[in-house]
């Protein structure tokens, strides 16, 4: 297999590199991470620039408004934007990386027309209303109910850990539409307008001090039946599509970021003498570099699978499990290199590393915990029996 750029890929890389070289020097500095409205404005303005330049939805098919790029070109896009220090996807994460792809795969032509352009241009921000108190790992236990009333569903219940809810326009929402059906069969996937009467958002503070996510309360909220993606009561299947994108491809750009961080960490270790003094640390850095190399291969696999068959397969959970654990090890290693400097956020050299380490604690929980990914890998990838079955 030839892993070098083809002439077309090399031209795509050059064009993107030139464009990034022109626009990035004029970009204002990123806003205060505690200020979500400012972060929304910043992230969506960047998305608009990508859109205007023809780089929004690089890997989405042309018929849904994307650029129809090959998997290799999408990976080049991730490499080059990261290398140049372009802004992270941020507030556009849910829309671009899993709600949009779900609508592209499962929505009607009208739904694609209604929602995909706003995601691509950065005009509209999305959040995800899946988890509830009592329905996190066991998502099929969800109780938020939707009762049909003419052309609307009337939705009541509550959601938890809804990232970016405070600044979102739309929410991919799971509701129970048939309480009498077996629990995986009575669920529907709706698009909730966040400004509808009866929607209340109550921000939750994280370890980092940011209001990254929120509780969502829904009190008799009217959602048009036309906002249902997939058939009524077929929402569990649509949810598996969303989770495959979320676990299989959404973190692809972060693998590039982690590979760069590893190189920076080796440099830091050399500068502060740890590199020479600690062969164990050198070995750990080398092993981690190999793991991130393997993770990049998994990214290539999942992206190709998504573009070939429309959706990444159960290997998405292999990636999610290995990536989130490797990322935590990377920042634990950074703490070992920094020593006591890693214990405080005090405007020092270690701040970014410490912030990333604290943030990374959530990576083995968000988008499904490591224990749940292990169960999925055991049963759906390796074909092992479910607990209690021979
Ligand atoms: C940073 C962050 C952002 C998030 N953003 C969103 C969002 O935008 N939208 C959204 O809907 N949700 C979001 N979540 C919620 C996330 O999906 C859930 O936290 C996750 O699915 C775990 O559910 P839980 O918190 O209810 O834990 P629980 O399900 O209560 O699990 C507690 C522990 O028990 C373990 N456990 C549970 N069942 C099993 C089992 N069968 N076998 C083995 N171990 C098991 C779990 O692995 C875990 O360690 C976010 C979470 C985080 C941390």
General description of the model:
The chain is an alpha+beta fold. Helices cover 49% and strands 14% of the residues. The protein contains twelve helices and eight strands. β2 (145-149) and β3 form a beta hairpin. α1 packs parallel to α3 and α3 packs across α9 (279-309). The chain is globular. The structure holds flavin-adenine dinucleotide.
What are its keywords?
single chain; 390 residues; alpha+beta; four-stranded mixed sheet; four-stranded antiparallel sheet; 8 strands; 14% strand; globular; binds flavin-adenine dinucleotide
Question: Brief description of this entry?
Answer:
By secondary structure, this protein is of the alpha+beta class. The protein has helices spanning 7-23, 36-52, 71-84, 93-106, 109-121, 235-248, 252-271, 274-277, 279-309, 315-338, 351-360, 370-381; strands at 126-129, 145-149, 152-163, 170-176, 187-193, 199-204, 213-224, 228-229.
Give the overall form: globular
How many helical elements?
12
Write out the strand line-up for the largest beta sheet, numbering strands in chain order.
Answer: 1-4-5-8
Fraction of residues in H or I helices: 40-55%
Topology summary:
Blueprint: H1 7-23, H2 36-52, H3 71-84, H4 93-106, H5 109-121, E1 126-129, E2 145-149, E3 152-163, E4 170-176, E5 187-193, E6 199-204, E7 213-224, E8 228-229, H6 235-248, H7 252-271, H8 274-277, H9 279-309, H10 315-338, H11 351-360, H12 370-381
Parallel strand pairs: 1-4
Antiparallel strand pairs: 2-3, 3-7, 4-5, 5-8, 6-7
Helix pairs in contact: 1-3, 3-7, 3-9, 4-5, 4-6, 6-10, 7-9, 7-10, 9-10, 10-11, 10-12
Bound molecules: flavin-adenine dinucleotide.
